[in-house]
Write a structure and sequence with these properties.
The chain has about 280 residues and is α/β, with parallel strands linked by helices. It has one domain: Nucleoside phosphorylase domain (Rossmann fold, 3-Layer(aba) Sandwich), CATH 3.40.50. Helix content is about 30%, strand content about 25%. Strands 5-8-7-6-9 form a five-stranded mixed beta barrel. It binds hypoxanthine.
Length: about 280
């Protein structure tokens, strides 16, 4: 899609959301990755819109991702916060294109969102983060060195990536997790293209480079969100130890299985964090 066509698709998507979910004005959007979809059950007054209804949103291919937008509220009473949940994302490993979420993220910004909470399943590179652990992303390594901003016009494309994972939001999230009694680690997330998992040598390299987690998503969305002026928060559910760090064989089924087992904790974490963010 060229720039003008994408712009039109975004306008049509926002108009469609206004028509199907009138009066909804979320400031916070969340992308739900593997293991995080139980969070959708926390939403009150939910309105669901299939991605297929929204021309700027992606067409999905991976099992375990539903492909719909849910608008509603998370939290009770005065604590309640309006949210937009993206249930399912397009990954760069599907087509080699890192810009699959461009239209969706820009539509959320056009809808009035000011912050994007990205969640994912990732491999752990740190012994203290056993499978099932949760990690707040403090920074990332774009070792793939691909970008969703290819072809983007103007000086606006030269975005500053310092503090990409908003320091104030991270502090608020860490405090909310502590208060809720959920252990939340912090660390650097390294983006690999996939879909193949890493070799043990690659995992050793990533550890040397200073990463604590490795995964196949999130980084392109962080770049898109920062370009669109959204504040970003990132959370990883560690579903396995990185290749060679344990004896288990990695597979997508294994990722989904471990993610499912931790779904309740992940949902509890977000139930605590979402109302606590100062937007
Ligand atoms: N590597 C890359 N991506 C992942 C992993 C992993 O070990 N686990 C879940 N997503």
């Amino acid at each position: 899609m060229n720039h003008a066509a994408l712009q039109t698709a975004i306008e049509h998507s926002v108009a469609r959301i206004h028509a199907l979910a009138p009066g909804r004005t979320p400031k916070l959007a969340l992308v739900l990755g593997s293991g995080w979809d139980a969070v959708a059950d926390l939403v009150e007054d939910a309105v669901d819109i299939e991605y297929a209804e929204l021309p700027a949103f992606p067409v999905l291919g991976v099992a375990g991702h539903a492909g719909s937008l849910r608008l509603g509220r998370i939290g009770l009473g005065a604590q309640a916060r309006e949210v937009a949940l993206l249930r399912g994302r397009q990954h760069a490993y599907e087509s080699g294109d890192a810009a699959g979420m461009k239209g969706a993220i820009r539509s959320l910004a056009a809808l009035g969102c000011t912050a994007l909470l990205l969640t994912n399943a990732a491999g752990s590179l740190a012994a203290e983060m056993a499978p099932g652990s949760l990690m707040l992303i403090s920074d990332h390594l774009n070792i793939v060195q691909r970008t969703p901003l290819h072809g983007e016009p103007g000086a606006g494309r030269f975005i500053d990536m310092v503090g990409a994972y908003d320091p104030a939001l991270r502090e608020q999230a860490a405090a909310a997790a502590a208060q809720a009694g959920v252990v939340l680690h912090q660390g650097v997330y390294a983006w690999v293209l996939g879909p193949q998992f890493e070799t043990p040598a690659e995992i050793r390299m990533l550890r040397l480079l200073g990463a604590q987690a490795v995964g196949m998503s999130t980084v392109p969305e962080t770049i898109l969100a920062r370009h669109a002026g959204l504040r970003v928060l990132g959370l990883s559910l560690l579903t396995n130890m990185g290749a060679g760090l344990s004896t288990e064989t990695l597979s997508h089924a294994h990722t989904l299985h471990t993610a499912q087992a931790s779904a309740a904790t992940a949902a509890r974490l977000l139930a605590a964090i979402v109302p606590a963010l100062q937007l």
